[in-house]
Amino acid sequence: MNLRLKTKILESGKPQIALAREIGIPEPILSKVVNGWIEPKADLRNKIAQALNCKTEEIFPQTREINKVKTQ
Predict the structure, then answer these.
(1) pLDDT tens digit string along 13-37?
(2) What DSSP character marks residue 65?
(3) Nearest Cα to 60, choosing from 31, 40, 35?
């Protein structure tokens, strides 16, 4: 689980489904990102961070380019 991402979502006060709609992805995909089942590509990481008003590195500190799952 990405606890940093989950914490930022909770701090934002936005329901997870509202965040998913805001960034233009299905809620189940966001849920998989939060739970660590998939690692989003850079563009989606940036959208999530922007929607949560934080830096990408705050919620995705060490992302690897290997084993990325296409999320869009």
Answers:
(1) 999 999 999 999 999 999 999 999 9
(2) S
(3) 40
User: DSSP class of residue 36?
Assistant: T
What is the CATH T-level fold of the domain 3-59, as seen in this structure?
434 Repressor (Amino-terminal Domain) (1.10.260)
What is the domain partition of the chain in residue ranges? 3-59
Q: How many CB atoms lie within 10 A of CB 20?
A: 20
> Rounded to the nearest 5 degrees, what angle is found at the Cα of 23, between the Cα atoms of 21 and 25?
65
How far apart CA 62 and CA 25 sit, in angstroms, is 22
DSSP character at residue 16? H
**What is the Cα–Cα distance from 64 to 23, expressed in whole angstroms?**
22
The model scores a pTM over 0.90 = no
